[in-house]
Amino acid sequence: MNGVPSSERLKINSVLSSEWLKLRSVRSTHHTLGAAAAIVVLGAVWTYYAGTAWDGRDPAGRAAFRAAAPEEGFLPFLQMALGVLGVLAITSEYATGMIRTSLVAVPDRRRLFLAKAGVLAALTLAGGHAILLATYAVSRIIAGGRTMGFNAGPFTADLPALLASGLSVTVLALVGLGTGTITRSTAGGVASVAVLLFVLPGVANLLPEPWGLRVFALFPIALVRQIAGEPVAAQAGAGALPPLVALAVLVGYAVVAVAAGVLSFTRRDA
Amino acid sequence: MIEVRELTKRYGDTAAVDGLSFRVEPGHVTGFLGPNGAGKSTTMRIVLGLDAPTSGEALVNGRRYATLPRPMRAVGALLDAGAVHGGRSAFDHLSCLALAGGIGRSRVAEVLEAVGLTGVARRLVGGFSLGMKQRLGIAAALLGDPGVLMFDEPVNGLDPEGVRWIRELMRALAAEGRTVLLSSHLMSEMALTADRLVVVGRGRLIADTTVRELTGRYPTLEDAYLALTAGSVEYGAAR
């Protein structure tokens, strides 16, 4: 077996297609994607509800009417659902012991982990953006000609926020993969994602100003708005970070999570 | 060929494997015997690169497992029949492994046929009996048509027909010139299946011999095993 040419080595494409089949052949992937897609329905219901409120107002009330955009309001739900998908992509293998079977097939651990991360990133990028776009489109159709605030601008003006939101979903999925790998526990991984999304930003808000806002601005939930050039919070005026810096910080979460995952995955016994 | 050299694996203060050396040659079924906690499974995990040794090394065909260019074509292993995702069908499970190893999908149908699981290939593995999972694990081990095979307790949960099937499969694989390492606690079965024996206790080598040699000295292989491992039975020494 010695002296096998390098072209005979396991191809990254083989590992990628194996990981893709792994991901799509289990129900949990369909369930988490389905849960994520529920925001299309939630967004439609929300827009319909806000629309009936708008219909009941007089012209002055209608002019002053401001409703939150559903693709923005329900974004944390999407981030959480696909964050769980990221966690399960690795912890389901540890929970079942499948990880040892996988590692016997692909002993190059870095390659196996990066293939898993790559497939997860591709699926969540496509799925996250599709779900956000559908939510956006359905809510605009239901809103129709009503001036509800969120549907004031043209699509091109909303595009940066949509793209940033979609990217954040993938970042949270990769954070889930990383924390799931480090903790080897579904509960540990899901809790880590929830803490990053919901708990720590709230704690940051308790810090004395200006630190409260400065720290809050660094969390994924605040970065999406800053990437789109929107104020980090309603009362804060301009965003704390320039869009490109905010984008770099958001991508940084994914890079750190994947790097930590690779370290943990390659250095410990399976 | 499998070569284990001065292999040691420590978990804290306890040594699961303690300076173990032996070779498993092609063309024979080699039985791997020892009490629970003797270090058999740990040794197999290290051979497959799943666990890192504290010192020493384990080589397959002269190389560490992780450096084999096409590992599934070189080595097939069944360590734990339960180490599968219960939410995947048998066909998808094997397809995932075949894709990863660059093995054609037609081979999946072949190994399913070989282990008798063709009829349940589309059923979820979670609903399989232990015996069916053992067959699935053996199918996975055979996927790459490897020259080296390792099986940890493959007859657990199998019915008498399955036990005989495993015995004949092991002997057929060895007769084709493959290296076969087989662990089991069933001495009567081992006496029928294996030619050579590696006996370990408390992580150390107790005997590296042949079945014929032992059954010549003792009434049965079971008597030989119990005499050799007396004093090595110690629970909690390793995981």
TrEMBL record, chain A:
The molecular function terms of the Gene Ontology recorded here are:
ABC-type transporter activity
Keywords, ordered alphabetically: Membrane, Transmembrane, Transmembrane helix
Protein name from the UniProt record: ABC transporter permease
Q: Name one GO cellular component term.
A: plasma membrane
According to the record, the segments passing through the membrane are 32-54, 74-96, 117-139, 159-177, 189-207, 244-265
UniProtKB/TrEMBL annotation, chain B:
Recorded GO terms, molecular function? ATP binding; ATP hydrolysis activity
Task: Provide the organism lineage as a comma list.
Answer: Bacteria, Bacillati, Actinomycetota, Actinomycetes, Streptosporangiales
What family is it from? Belongs to the ABC transporter superfamily.
Q: Which InterPro entries has this protein been placed in?
A: AAA+_ATPase, ABC_transporter-like_ATP-bd, ABC_transporter-like_CS, P-loop_NTPase
Transmembrane regions = none
Species for this entry: Planobispora longispora
Q: Identify the keywords attached in UniProt to this record, alphabetized.
A: ATP-binding, Nucleotide-binding, Transport
Limits of the ABC transporter domain: 2-227
| Protein name in UniProt | ABC transporter domain-containing protein
UniProt entry tagged with the keyword Transport: yes
